[in-house]
Design a protein that fits this description.
Radius of gyration: 20 Å
Helix content: 25-40%
CATH architecture of the largest domain: 3-Layer(aba) Sandwich
Shape: globular
CATH topology of the largest domain: Isopropylmalate Dehydrogenase
Number of helices: 12
Distance between the termini: 15 Å
Number of strands: 14
Number of domains: 2
Strand content: 15-25%
CATH class of the largest domain: Alpha Beta
Bound molecules: 3-isopropylmalic acid, magnesium ion
């Protein structure tokens, strides 16, 4: 196997650069073990790009992405840039435009629990008997995040802020087909999440998803209102296989799912276009409170790298090697801080707490 891969690396802000460095340590190990040749080019994005180029998504960064095979993204944002006008801020000035520019409509967020981490879940462990393996398919380029009009108007007591939740038939159809196909390769169970009891957009969503189900008779489709889905995810997480969700509901439910797996620092994501181009990023934010302390959990970034190798380059073997390495490191009782809860001192004592870079190195060492 000899592949040459050109990667755009966008570490961004907060813990982004630290967890990215750890992911690169793992990438080096994978390159060595599997004879890959990867060219990595770094680009500025988010707050750091605002500071140096006056814009969260500089032209140079966009063209770097356009000429790369895939994008590995860290995280953007932080208190320093929160007072800027919203459209200039790192999230709305860089991340959302990147998703839109490349039409990355299909966002995959796998939530599974490593056996060694069942103890780290805030759920009682009996809720996780039989493990947990959920794939959230989140629509990423439409819905309330992008609907127009959006903005603020007026002043005084009648001043108002507004967003628009809207989906076209074709937008729902393509993400629904993507989710059904994904479910076909798993346990063939798809739960579509909406709020069809209140929102017109979501009634339409349910109707279109139901119509698409006819193309996939082997997949069992059910529907849940998002409030109920949030509850069921806590109550019976192992009942879920694939969850299809509109943009905002997918955002919310994926944080919940991440926490069930032990920490927000565990969840990776792939954002894909119709042609298969992909941006890969941890679902958690830039965690400014711990940025620069070498304490952040790099596993979500490392798993994002694994998703990149799998989805953009069909290097499933490499992705599996990364998963196995993580599982072994965790089984050997190595943890980052976020995975050990202070209320559990007896258990906490048996763990070796690693820094971000030590965790990256430990995982890299186990790549075979
Ligand atoms: C995510 C994040 C982003 C989102 C933010 C940073 C804009 O929360 O990827 O889940 O809301 O999509
Ligand atoms: Mg989110």
């Amino acid at each position: 196997m000899k592949k040459t891969i050109k990667l755009a690396l966008l570490p961004g802000d907060g813990i982004g650069p630290e967890v990215m460095t750890a992911a690169l340590t793992v990438l080096k190990a994978v390159e060595r073990a599997y004879g890959l040749s990867v060219t990595v080019t770094e680009g500025l994005v988010g707050g750091i790009a605002i500071d140096t180029h006056g814009t969260a998504l500089p032209k140079e960064t966009l063209s770097l992405c356009e000429t790369s095979d895939a994008i590995l993204f860290g995280s953007v944002g932080g208190p320093k840039w929160e007072s800027l006008p919203p459209e200039k801020q790192p999230e709305r000035g860089a991340l959302l435009p990147l998703r839109k520019h490349f039409d990355l409509y299909a966002n995959l967020r796998p939530a599974f629990v490593y056996p060694a981490l069942i103890e780290a879940s805030p759920l009682k462990n009996n809720r996780l008997v039989g493990g947990l393996n959920i794939l959230i398919v989140r629509e990423l380029t439409s819905g309330i995040y992008f609907g127009k009009p959006k903005g603020r108007e007026g002043s005084g007591p009648s001043e108002r802020g507004f967003d628009t939740m809207a989906y076209s038939r074709s937008e729902i159809e393509r993400i629904a087909r993507f989710a059904f196909k994904t479910a076909q390769n798993r346990k063939k169970r798809l739960v579509s999440v909406d709020k069809a009891n209140v929102l017109a957009t979501m009634m339409f969503w349910r109707e279109v998803v139901t119509a698409i189900a006819k193309e996939f008779p082997d997949v069992t489709l059910s529907h849940l209102y998002v409030d109920n889905a949030a509850m069921q995810l806590i109550n019976a997480p192992q009942d879920f296989d694939v969850i299809l969700a509109p943009n905002m509901f997918g955002d919310i439910l994926s944080d919940e799912a991440a926490m069930i797996t032990g920490s927000i620092g565990m969840l990776a994501s792939a954002s894909l276009s119709a042609s298969g181009f992909g941006l890969y990023e941890p679902i958690g934010g830039s965690a400014p409170d711990i940025a620069g302390t070498n304490k952040a959990n790099p596993i979500a970034q490392i798993l994002s790298l694994a998703m990149l190798l799998e989805h953009s380059f069909a290097l499933n073997e490499c992705a599996t090697a990364i998963h196995n390495a993580i599982a072994r490191v965790l089984a050997d009782n190595y943890r980052t801080r976020d995975l050990v809860h202070d209320d559990n001192t007896r258990e906490a004592q048996q763990f070796n707490i690693l820094s971000t870079q030590e965790m990256g190195a430990a995982i890299a060492e186990k790549i075979t």
